[in-house]
Amino acid sequence: MVIKGLKNGPYEIKLEGKKFVVKREDGEEVKQNAIYLCRCGFSKNKPFCDGSHGRCGFEAPEVVIEVK
After folding, report:
1. What is the pLDDT of residues 47-63, one digit of tens each?
2. Contact 29, 19 (CB under 8 A)
3. Which of 1, 2, 32, 58 could connect to 53 by a Cys-Cys bridge, CB 3.0–4.6 Å?
4. Distance between CA 16 and CA 42 in Å, rounded?
5. Rounded mean pLDDT of 34-49?
6. Could you tell me the residue ranges of all domains in the chain?
């Protein structure tokens, strides 16, 4: 697993060779290679990123966390 805090953006979380299954409140399931979690606090779709970091002027350095 790799968790990356993108420069001035969200957390990107990836699992090598696996997909995330996101289960929505309405029962819909979406399979994704990566998920992006808000770290600016302004997303209207928390915990997921909706691009608000670009509109609110959020700034943060890139950081990478690897789980082995």
Report:
1. 999 999 999 999 999 99
2. no
3. 58
4. 29
5. 96
6. 2-66
Radius of gyration, CA atoms only, the chain: 13
Cα(61)–Cα(9) distance, integer angstroms: 9
- Could you confirm whether domain 2-66 is CATH 3.50.50.60? no
Distance CA 32, CA 55 (A): 25
Element (DSSP H or E) covering residue 66: strand 63-66
Mean pLDDT taken over the chain: 94
Measured CA to CA in angstroms, residue 20 lies from 41, 58, 62 at distances of 22, 26, 23
Helix (H, G, I), strand (E, B) or coil at 53: helix
